[in-house]
């Protein structure tokens, strides 16, 4: 993506060179994988159960250490993230205005190892996530190496762009009241039915990521969309379950299949119309 020399957002909190504060869930082993599966690319459940999972580890949390000073590469990635957030701010400010609404800009927090949020403590094993309690996106950029090496994504800078746009999609759902309505709809439902609603929420965030890419397609490089689709494919519930346990359990899906995630991102990219993203209707 053509980003050098573009506006950078002031709404990034870079905590990578300071201690995460408190204990972090150890990223390796079964517990780390559980958190990653629950929380990868958005969703609030992983943050809510993080303290419980830490207790399951027998209280063997590790005090986070002060991180090393940022390298030039780290600083460059920070600038890239600030620019991507600015792109998102510009797109959604415009789209909200076109629909008679005002866009409230979220914060984006970069961290290493562990972080405290209004949704509880989290480790980098949680993957990128959005916390509605403080309306902030949290990311440990080391996740993207895991995405490539463990989950088979193509990698590339635009995978980061896709994830940020997806998490901003969850912020949009909070602003529009979609997230709270979804939680109300889940009440009294079976686990399978509640999971379907969670899938719809995640797929809509993928759709919003596609809408964002559509609005900025003049600045995309050849291969950017392929990188986004590769990332979406890698984090489908079926792909993750197949890699981790050798079989898939559709009723347990909370984020959607690889095919669904790619479909909704592509639909957003093709249409650029937020009115075309009623995932709740189409997954019934």
TrEMBL record:
Sequence intervals crossing the membrane: 21-41
Membrane topology value: Single-pass membrane protein
Top-level lineage group: Bacteria
Location(s) in or outside the cell: Membrane
Signal peptide: none
Record's keyword annotation contains Glycosyltransferase: no
InterPro entries in alphabetical order: Uncharacterised_pept_Zn_put
Chief site of localization: membrane
Keywords: Membrane, Transmembrane, Transmembrane helix
Pfam family, any one: Zn_peptidase
PANTHER family: INNER MEMBRANE PROTEIN, PUTATIVE MEMBRANE PROTEIN YPFJ
Protein name according to UniProt: Neutral zinc metallopeptidase
Gene source species: Flavobacterium chungangensis
């Amino acid at each position: 993506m053509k980003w050098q020399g573009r506006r950078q957002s002031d709404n990034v909190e870079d905590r990578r060179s300071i201690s995460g504060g408190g204990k972090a869930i150890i990223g390796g082993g079964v517990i780390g994988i559980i958190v990653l599966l629950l929380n990868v690319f958005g969703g609030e459940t992983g943050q809510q159960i993080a303290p419980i999972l830490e207790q399951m580890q027998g209280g063997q949390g590790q005090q986070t250490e002060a991180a090393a000073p940022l390298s030039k590469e780290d600083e460059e990635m920070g600038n890239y993230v600030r620019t991507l957030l600015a792109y998102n701010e510009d797109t959604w400010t415009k789209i909200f205005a076109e629909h008679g609404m005002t866009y409230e800009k979220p914060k984006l927090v970069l961290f290493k190892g562990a972080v405290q949020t209004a949704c509880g403590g989290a480790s980098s094993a949680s993957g990128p996530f959005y916390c509605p309690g403080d309306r902030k996106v949290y990311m440990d950029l080391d996740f993207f190496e895991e995405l490539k090496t463990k989950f088979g994504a193509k990698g590339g800078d635009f995978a980061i762009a896709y994830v940020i746009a997806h998490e901003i999609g969850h912020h949009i759902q909070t602003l529009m009241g979609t997230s709270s309505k979804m939680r109300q709809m889940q009440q009294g439902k079976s686990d399978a039915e509640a999971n379907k609603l969670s899938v719809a929420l995640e797929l809509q965030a993928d759709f919003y990521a596609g809408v964002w890419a559509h609005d900025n397609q003049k600045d995309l490089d050849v291969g950017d969309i392929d990188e986004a689709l590769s990332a979406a494919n890698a984090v489908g519930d079926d792909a993750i379950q197949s890699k981790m346990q050798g079989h898939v359990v559709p009723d347990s899906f909370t984020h959607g299949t690889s095919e669904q995630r790619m479909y909704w991102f592509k639909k957003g990219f093709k249409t650029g119309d937020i009115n075309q993203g009623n995932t709740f209707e189409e997954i019934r």
